[in-house]
Design a protein that fits this description.
EC 2.5.1.47, Rossmann fold, Cys_Synth/Cystath_Beta-Synth, cysteine synthase activity, 8 helices, alpha/beta, four-stranded parallel beta sheet, about 35% helix, Cysteine synthase, six-stranded mixed beta sheet, TrpB-like_PALP_sf
């Protein structure tokens, strides 16, 4: 393959078996989304939104692109904006890791840090995210920019249904017995779940939530602050389709920490906390007895650990 730009590098990530940190029952396979040019699964959504907006005229040549980000969507947008010729402005809660801001600035984005409302360093709450989103919307209006508004962009779900989900089916040769993914906007979980359930309605689809912030499970928010950045902000995402979720699996901060290091030192996969939470939840699903002993559960390694 000869790519004409970085946009052509997005997608078609490898599927890797995690047999060194999980020796049964069953097996865990994971999409290596940290190998995307922007370092995360959000590259897919960024490309889908910008190409759709350019196609329907919402995004004109040279127009600024503006978005709130915890880091990953911003990096994906930076990659796509560089290829398409758009300046990028991102707003980010000051509670996100400083390495994320440096990464985005390195990719050419203008980064506007927004003070936290009720979170703490490394623990961003829903209120913190809303404050950053409000600033992004204001900047887009002031500068005549295109406001991405990822939580309300339906293009992201379709991108994962036709892309990530289809790739998993092709790479495995059939639908896995289970699908597990953390939920931020919910687009990765829902898009892949649609593709897998279309191929096999019996595929068990489990949403991953930080323990104490399990809104998809219908539980009250008892712990709005958690280390799994980019996920579970204490509210159900705008386009959430509850019919795609068979169950919710809770992961504690300590569990995410405990799984992240073995992924690096035993599998050679240096990934973030959401990826570690996904693998932890996949193991829990396989150990629950809900699936047959030789079941395959697919998940996603959301991003690189280099920005934490």
């Amino acid at each position: 393959m000869l790519a004409t730009s970085s946009i052509d590098l997005i997608g078609n990530t490898p599927l890797v078996t995690l047999g060194r940190i999980h020796d049964g029952p069953g097996r865990i396979v994971a999409k290596a989304e940290f190998l995307q040019p922007g370092g995360s699964v959000k590259d897919r959504a960024a490309r889908a939104i910008l190409l759709a907006a350019r196609a329907d005229g919402r995004l004109q040549p040279g127009m600024p692109v503006v978005e709130m980000t915890s880091g990953n969507m911003g990096a994906g947008l930076a990659v796509a904006c560089a290829a398409l010729g758009h300046p990028l402005v991102v707003t980010m809660s000051a509670g996100n890791s400083p390495a994320r801001a440096r990464m985005l600035e390195g990719l050419g984005a203008e980064v506007v840090l927004v003070a936290q409302v009720d979170g703490a360093s490394g623990q961003v709450t829903g209120a913190d995210v809303q404050a950053a989103a409000d600033v992004a919307a204001r900047i887009a209006a002031e500068r005549g920019g295109f406001y991405v508004d990822q939580f309300n962009a339906v293009e992201c779900i379709a991108a994962h249904e036709a892309g990530t989900g289809r790739e998993i089916l092709d790479q495995l040769g059939s639908a896995p017995d289970g699908w597990v993914a953390a939920v931020g906007t919910g687009c990765t979980f829902m898009g892949v779940a649609r593709a897998l359930k279309a191929a096999n309605p019996a595929t068990v689809c489990a949403a991953v939530e930080p323990q104490g912030c399990e809104v998809l499970a219908g539980a009250p928010v008892l712990k709005a602050r958690h280390v799994i950045q980019g996920t579970s902000y204490g509210a159900v995402p705008p386009h959430w389709d509850a019919t795609l979720m068979d169950l919710s699996l809770a992961v504690t901060d300590d569990e995410a920490e405990d799984w992240r290091r073995p992924l690096a030192v035993r599998e050679g996969l240096y990934v973030g906390f959401s990826a570690a939470a996904n693998v932890c939840a996949a193991a829990k699903l396989l150990q629950s007895g809900r699936l047959r002993p030789d079941a395959t559960v697919a998940t996603v390694l959301c991003d690189t650990g280099l920005k934490y």
